[in-house]
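pinging the channel bc i need a second pair of eyes. not urgent but kinda urgent?? the chain im working w is below, pasted from the shared doc
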Amino acid sequence: MKLVLAMMKHETNTFSPIVTDWARFEAWGMYTGQAAIDAYAKTNMPLGVYLKLAREYGAEVVLPMAAEAMPGGLVTADAYKRLCDPILEAVKAGCDGCLLDLHGAMVAEGTEDGEGTLLERIRQIAPDLPIAVTLDLHCNLTAKMVQNCTGLIGYKTYPHVDMDVVAEQVGRTVMEFITGKRPKPAMALRQLPLLSQTLCQGTDDEPMKSAIQACRDEEAKGLPAASVFGGFAMADIRDAGTTVITIGNDQRQADAAADAIAAKVWDKRDLHIYQHRDLAETVAKAKKITQGPVILLDHADNCGSGGTQDVMMVIEEVLKQGLEDVAVGAIWDPEAVQIMQAAGVGATVTLELGGKSGMPSLKLKGKPLKLTGRVRTITDGEWIVRGPMYNGYKVMMGPTAVLEVDGRMQIVVVSRHHEPWDTGVFRSVGIEPEHKRYLLLKSRIHYRAGFAPLAKATFTLDGEGVTTSDNRIIPYKNVRRPIYPLDKINDWRDAAK
């Protein structure tokens, strides 16, 4: 038996000014062949599970592409072609099955459904090829994705700490089909007219907690798999939004479960919309908390959803209000890192920090913040994740430095975008996060993977950026209508017709 395994992942924010080219994939991690096996075999990511399954079934493995880039703007046509072509060539050479680790929200030049287009092209080469797919909880699931694979599943946790669990679930289901131990799975897709906001999709909270439980309840009844995708609202494409997908032993079972789960999701639609708060008032409330660490979330500038990671608005307010003992993770500013490197550890420098990126889609200009501080640490920015999300993966933040301002704020400044979901973003530069009073994180929900156990309190700070949850300023043009909350809808089935 020969299996083609591959990974191709990107969450595309169509409002982001960041160019997602081939170099951006290389910067985060692009591997082929044995190098890909070495990079992922010991991780808890789907590709690691697929490798384990291949060994269990005694299969020959072909791994033509394992690539991921930090979220950003449109994937260039060149990068998309260079990602897809090796996978297509491997399938064309012949195989008995294909196990794919995809994201589900890739938008590229020439296609707003990067994953669906790849799967469609695979099917054109091998119409009957068994294909298993894992997708991110923030996938904007399309009919094209579902129609061109055998089994498809999404993560049930956000932060995504169950990637290995769901990969095992769908991978084994499809492997049993390949080996004749079960019939071909039946799938049912339900696309809801709901533009859920990422900040409301944490699976420990409502409404996603109930949605995921509804999936688990159906699986407990004997359904092979069920998934709810919150979707990714920062992609202005037709199919952005919330979806349900079920894998049944037959079509009737799949359809009944999909309808039941969709109805439960729709009943809590109001909870998918974030309620904004005044920034200054929220910082003032956080200042009153005496026991730390207190988590401060600069969620509108989260690079993990395509943010530029250099908006200084929230940091400026925190400094203005005089909060003490603050660690910031992290600001993207390669120029500032170079200045600090040249000055050396212990030197005092004055920087125009951050604000290097304009955001034309939201009519926002970059606003650097002038700061004087001491260079505390300089590193190469490389470390291994030891927490539950991406465990075992090597992070490469690029040249990194820490600027200490007024003895009360330490700012981690990086040369490559990286969302702080693991405490390594601080520990790798000598900061012990558990002993700080405040941790200001450029994150939405993923921070919980590494930081939730430390937090005495958490505040969402509504600054600026292309990962904003403020629908009033997002210029949607392409998303299908009607869709809630942009439109008033009573019954999701009416809008879905």
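so The radius of gyration is 22 Å. and The first strand starts at residue 2 and ends at 9. — does that match what u expected or am i reading it wrong
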